[in-house]
Amino acid sequence: MTTLEQPQPLGGTTFTRPVQILLAFAALAGALIVWRFAAGLGATTALNDGYPWGLWIAFDVVTGTALSCGGYGIAILVYILNRGNYHPLIRPALVTSAFGYTIAGLSVMIDVGRPWIAYQLPFFWHWNVHSVLLEVALCIMTYTIVLWLELSPAFLERARTSGIQLIRRVGEVGLPVMKKSLLWLTALGMLLPTMHQSALGSLLLLSGPRLHPVWNTTLLPLLFLLSCVAMGFGAVVIEGSLSALFLRRKPETPMLAGLGLVMQPLIGLYLVIRIVDIAVRGQLAALFAFDFYSVLALFEMALFAASMVLLATDRQRHDLGNLFRAAMLMVLAGALYRFDVFLVAFQPGAHWFYFPNLTEILITAGLVAGEIAGYIIVIKVFPIMSGAPLPAPAR
Amino acid sequence: MTISRRSALKVMAAATATSVAKAVTPSTASAAAIAAPPDAVGMLYDATKCIGCKACMSACNRANDLEPDTSLSSGRWHMPLDLNEHTKNIIKLYRDANSGEQSFIKRQCMHCLDPACVGACMLGALQKGEHGIVSYNADLCIGCRYCEMGCPFNVLKFEWSKAVPKMQKCELCRHRMPEKGPACCEVCPTGAVIYGKRADLLAEAHRRLAQYPDRYQPKVYGEEEVGGTQVLYLAHVNFEKLGLPAYRDQSVPKTVRTVQHTIYQGFVAPVALYGVLAAVMLRNRKKGGVAEGEEERRS
Asked: What is the pLDDT of residues B197-246, one digit of tens each?
């Protein structure tokens, strides 16, 4: 066996000081969540009847799951386009995706007013099949389970080496079963995001009359789908660069550069469709009115374009610093697009105002902190990362 | 290998292309207004007759067991700024300081013929029920508030102040039927708001328009807006100034259904896509690809 090819647990101290700090933030969020359920949403958030959806939906759910499309994007690359050389990126991407979707699901349960009714969601005889949100909810619930199952071989491989016989047995029996079913799960893991990431865009079709005309288009699902894949790749680049930096590992630059190459046409296609759609709908005047919304839309598109420009040449893509900046721009562009559609371009009326309050921000921050801590712990304990650690720095 | 890989992309591309084409092409059939249910009831509010006494507001709270909203009156009387969790019905005043033009306007659920909130609701807590009344059943409500995101009239209200909240909206006092109609219509001293069958109310509105053409804006608001509503309005002031937007005659959920149907008709596209994805993966694996199960054998 070539040890370099096989994913290995990183080992080392699990609860380092940074992890402790991250977990403290998560614990604070936990306490605030308890308060939110005791006191209700009005007392704890800035949400109101004009802006019934706020930070938790726009960021944790809509942006968060798009950033978690790494697992989806890399799976298409490896299993459909048969680019086996990207295989080492799959497991780290799946860890991010699994945590991202779990956080999104958790946020929804905090955001909804009557979560105890959610147990009725699988009861199909109640389903309103016309509800886009129902599709999103069922898809995200299923996909979260699929993601953890896709990742389960990593846990089972670790279980095989456990000192406890029962856990070892679970690993030995479970691993072959999982490996057999993995193909069918992975196919599902590509179908479900295609459905719900586009549906996240379709959600706001229902708010069409109250959505600014520059953003209000029946192509919302397509634009959301294209940008989520680019955001997923961007997130993998960011995560790859950061883990190389902080965990002192050799960066997978050629692989990440390849992702940069794939992001390019996705961003290009997104921009072309976006602009042609605005033109066809006769909203070019609104786009270039240079009022607040026009400047916002242009800035948003400029972020997409800037990311594409930074990825233009082969040399730029192989410069890790530059690649990282391009990925950051892409992720920001996609996030801004989502915030704009869900909050800024959504116009419930002049007398309504929303800006997230401290509780909402701290809960979101705490969930993200928990996610990062979870990622660090998982890659240390379970075989996720392949590739080589950097030699210890000479002092 | 390339053939099946290409076919996967083709299915994806074809599905996308058809949905794009259908979504972009404006549907010509949609211009026709939606047919109201034959037993549809509703209200007709005539702003020229309203004296702003707000008797309808207290009657509404009494009939629906709603606590008064006293946050702006130091706990003394029901004084809401807008529809909210304590207010299913409100009388507002529009006044232009320069021209002196003024009008009262009553706001409550419009009971759309094709309601966005019903299209939004995941488990059918909101339903277009008997007499076309848009009704709410808390037992199936998760509190996601997507109905609020959808409602073009900003009518649905969430009980923000409660740890165990519900949605609040006018249900045309359906709990008082069939003996009594809506409490607001019952108490109105000037007949500014009347209750009846939608068809009769529409005829009455057109009769008033024909009889007093210079008294009204030449339009019955709600006849066609967002596909038609069961609450109808007559006014002497431009409806937009009264907070009733100039919506097109097309129902919003219909657009959503068109897009969704195009993509998901009979669930064929998702199943086909799943099959193709799995087939391509199987083929890639046979060709010595990197599907996970093969990993160990290779290394």
From this structure: 999 999 999 999 999 999 999 999 999 999 999 999 999 999 999 999 99
Tell me whether residues B256 and A130 touch, CB distance under 8 A. Answer: yes
Q: Which of A87, A200, A205 to mutate to test the interface with B (most CBs of B within 10 A)?
A: A205
Cα B276 to Cα B280: distance, rounded to the nearest angstrom: 6
C-alpha count within 13 angstroms, C-beta hemisphere, residue B93:
10
User: pTM for the whole thing?
Assistant: 0.90
CB-based contact A7:A383 (threshold 8 Å): yes
Whether the CB of A2 is below 8 Å from some CB of chain B: the reply is yes
Nearest to B290 among A84, A113, A184 (CB): A84
B11 touches chain A (CB under 8 A): no
DSSP string, A83-119: -GGGGGGHHHHHHHHHHHHHHHHHHHHHHSS-GGGGG
- Give the β-pairing of B193-197 and B41-46: antiparallel
Contact B282, A183 (CB under 8 A): yes
- Measured between beta carbons, the chain B residues lying within 8 angstroms of A78 are 290
Please state, in angstroms and as integers, the Cα–Cα distance from residue A112 to each residue in A37, A201, A365, B167, following that order: 10, 19, 19, 12
Considering only CA atoms, give the Rg of chain A: 22
* Burial of B245: CB neighbours in 10 Å, binned 0-12, 13-18, 19+: middle
Q: Which residue of A has its CA nearest to B22?
A: A218
Residue B195 has, within 13 A of its CA and on its CB side, a CA count of 18
pLDDT at B259 (0 to 100): 85
Which of the residues B160, B271, B296 would you substitute to probe the A interface, choosing the one with the greatest number of A C-beta atoms within 10 Å?
B160
Omega before residue B178 within 30° of 0, cis: yes
- Compute how many other C-beta atoms are within 10 angstroms of the C-beta atom of residue A279: 11
Distance CA(A326)–CA(A317), nearest Å, equals: 9
ipTM of the complex: 0.92
Q: With bands split at pLDDT 50, 70 and 90, how would you rate the model's confidence at A349?
A: confident
